[in-house]
Write a structure and sequence with these properties.
Structural class: alpha+beta
Largest sheet: 5 strands, mixed
Strand order of the largest sheet: 1-2-3-5-4
Number of helices: 4
């Protein structure tokens, strides 16, 4: 069940989503604000905080999930809810730059994100993880989060690890580059829709 809570401005949105597996409350502002994240998975909290920081977003997120099973439902469902909030906050997408890209190094790892807020969801993810876990976080969940985010926000999202030996560094570079690319893409540059079709 999705329950919109507030819509404080044209570029802010809050939502609650409750299923038998997770209970998530999320508030997003594209123009900045406090960042507070609690999912029960420490490394995932760290990644979401980095994502919001580098995107310049305000993000308040609380997630209760069936972590006694594993982290999959929590991570994927946070991606779903964040994607829904992002597309709602973008509204008509009028005036936004639309495209964004970033290349981020993290020690030995180098990762790239290129995206289009096209309203045509698609994910290309090329980032093998050398280690299966990072603390209590399964490395394979990063692609699940990115897929859920892209599908629920209408992002054409391409991510690639150019090289790297450490799954922690690779994952962190992916989240940080995503934040930087989003910051660029959501930037308002005028009052026209950035499409030759006239709509996104």
């Amino acid at each position: 069940m999705n329950v919109p809570i507030v819509s404080g401005s044209e570029r802010a949105y809050a939502i609650q989503r409750t299923t038998k597996e997770t209970d998530i409350t999320l508030s997003l502002c594209l123009d900045g604000g406090e960042v507070s994240v609690s999912t029960g998975i420490g490394f995932f909290d760290h990644m979401l905080t980095a994502l919001a920081f580098y995107a310049g977003f305000g993000l308040e997120l609380s997630a209760l999930g069936d972590l006694h099973v594993d982290g999959h439902h929590t991570v994927e469902d946070v991606g779903i809810v964040l994607g829904q909030a992002l597309t709602a906050a973008l509204g008509s997408r009028k005036g936004i730059r639309r495209y964004g890209s970033a290349l981020v190094p993290m020690d030995e790892a180098l990762c790239r994100t290129v995206l289009d807020l096209s309203n045509r969801p698609y994910l290309v993810f090329d980032a093998p993880m050398p280690q299966p876990t990072i603390g209590g976080y399964d490395s394979c969940l990063t692609v699940e989060f990115m897929r859920a985010l892209a599908m629920n926000s209408g992002i054409t999202l391409h991510q690639k690890c150019e090289y790297g030996d450490n799954a922690h560094h690779i994952t962190e570079a992916l989240f940080k580059s995503l934040g930087l690319a989003l910051k660029e893409a959501v930037r308002v540059e005028g009052d026209a829709v950035a499409s030759t079709k006239g709509a996104l």
